[in-house]
Here is the input.
Amino acid sequence: MKIKLIGVCLLGFLFFNCNTDNEPSCAEDFTGALTATETVLEGTWALTAIESSVAIDLTDDQEDNAIKDIYSQSTDCQNDAVYSFLSSRSFSLKQGYVAEDCEQKSSITGSWQLSGDILSLVNSCTVFNVEIEVNEEETAFTVSNVLNLRDIDNKIVQANVTYTYTKS
Here is the structure.
């Protein structure tokens, strides 16, 4: 299964800002100093887990061995996703840059803001809002979303998928 982590990681509500002339206008980048609650995200965060609410078999190993751990069933390149949140409010999300021999690399940059449990990212004139949960120790955060996954038998399985990012 080819998981497009970057797209999944940025899932949320997509808002386009329009003016009264019906011409698209870009979302403004976030600016200003970080609030005390936002400083928890400052730094580098690597993907360390992907868990499904239902067991699914994604590996072509000739065995029916469905499990909830999607991370262990994914390639190193698929699991290689790293967020960097800077105090300047800029962010990057890179996939395929750390793991060796990744043929596909992708990078997204923009600005960010955390308001309560909503992480807002501005990229390419668009605001993405996603609910995150930061653990009590402030060493990891999770993002969850309902997805349709295709198992090894080409069957679509709907599941709540949780991605965990751990601070480096």
Q: What stands out?
A: Helices lie at 5-9, 76-79. The chain is about 5% helix and 50% strand. Residues 5-9 form the longest helix (5 residues).
